[in-house]
Specification:
CATH architecture: 3-Layer(aba) Sandwich
CATH class: Alpha Beta
Structural class: alpha/beta
Shape: globular
Helix content: 10-25%
Number of helices: 7
CATH topology: Rossmann fold
Order of helices and strands: EHEEHEHEHEEHEHEEEHEE
Distance between the termini: 33 Å
Radius of gyration: 18 Å
Strand content: 25-35%
Strand order of the largest sheet: 6-5-4-7-8-13-12
CATH superfamily: Vaccinia Virus protein VP39
Bound molecules: S-adenosylmethionine
Number of domains: 1
Length: 301
């Protein structure tokens, strides 16, 4: 019997477009994340339109530190780009999904279609680079991370900061995630890497790597490169955010913090918030706990 495979295309963008066309409300469009061991998760695309007060604390903590000219890497539907622009930052979104770029533009923020590793001088340079919604995952893995961090440093102004959020793949009790970590190690990958694709109806994206690094793994990847891990804020279920400072250059020009937390500093641990996208194929709290450093398995992890 013949089995047809989905056509390769902008499945993620299709989900965002459909959700946005309906006003960004829940119950309309769902993102299916397929991990390369067959593990499948579904998430309502409405979370990509969540307002700052619905975010988890570590994301507000990160955005509060954004100043000046901001590059939002993997901007999606503009969940962070839109409020950062409203707070006075000059924001440029970057996303490889044409649909994501179209949605962000329709919300009034400049966005450029392209892959992170191909981003070049045409974007200009930035005071702040954000990798939010677990987009530290775009570092790809321990081998790819130095090249990605180096590329981002090339887009950074003196004194720039990189604000990113992530999830520790090992902070899970789910047996299927622990098994995935073990399989990863067996095939020579870090346990915390995931290879996933996004599905929507007859479409699938290409397979791509996403890295749910533990803080220890992230720290090791950053060491010796152009960025210094300045602060890490941890939240429940293995969620965290970090601020990396560009090494050896002067501090950023006085810029006003965005204050997205409306005055009082909203720190992590302040509230549940809308679960940021978790492509671990793993979800925090869902899976087994693989001890840090050893490898795979997250909700999508
Ligand atoms: C988990 S979503 C996060 C979206 C958004 N930051 C948010 O939190 O709502 C990851 C985004 O990164 C984009 N992306 C994935 N790989 C990329 C790459 N290599 N270069 C640029 N964007 C990428 C995807 O298209 C998607 O929009």
């Amino acid at each position: 019997m013949q089995v047809r495979q989905p056509a390769v295309g902008d499945a993620f963008g299709a989900v965002l477009r459909r959700c946005w066309a309906a006003g960004g409300v829940p119950g309309v469009a769902f993102e299916l994340v397929e991990r390369d061991d067959g593990f499948l998760t579904a998430g309502d695309a409405a979370r990509y339109f969540a307002a700052p007060e619905q975010w988890v604390g570590v994301e507000r903590w990160a955005c509060d530190q954004a100043t000046g000219r901001v590059l939002d890497v993997g901007c999606g539907a503009g969940r962070h780009a839109v409020p950062l622009a409203a707070a006075g930052c000059e924001v440029v979104g970057l996303d490889r999904s044409p649909g994501a770029v179209a949605v962000t533009r329709s919300r009034g923020v400049r966005a450029v279609q392209g892959a992170l590793l191909e981003a070049g001088a045409e974007l200009g340079t930035f005071d702040t680079i954000v990798l939010l919604g677990n987009n530290l995952g775009l570092l790809g893995g321990p081998e790819q991370a130095p090249a990605v961090l180096g590329r981002l440093a090339g887009l950074a102004r003196p004194g720039a900061r990189l604000l990113g959020s992530g999830v520790d793949a090992y902070a899970t009790d789910a047996a299927e995630h622990h098994a995935y970590h073990a399989w990863n190690r067996h095939r020579g990958r870090a346990g915390s890497q995931v290879r996933v694709r996004i599905r929507d109806r007859m479409l699938a994206t290409e397979w791509f790597d996403y890295w749910f690094a533990s803080l220890a793994e992230l720290s090791a990847a950053v060491a010796g490169g152009p960025w210094r891990l300045a602060v890490a804020e941890e939240e429940s279920a293995g969620r965290y955010a970090v601020r990396l400072d560009l090494v050896g250059r002067r501090p950023p020009a006085a810029g006003r913090a965005t204050g997205l937390s409306t005055g009082s500093r909203t720190g992590p641990r302040n509230g549940p918030g809308v679960e940021p996208v978790d492509w671990r194929g793993i979800g925090p709290g869902n899976g087994p706990g693989v001890e840090p450093g050893n490898g795979p398995g997250v909700d999508g992890r």
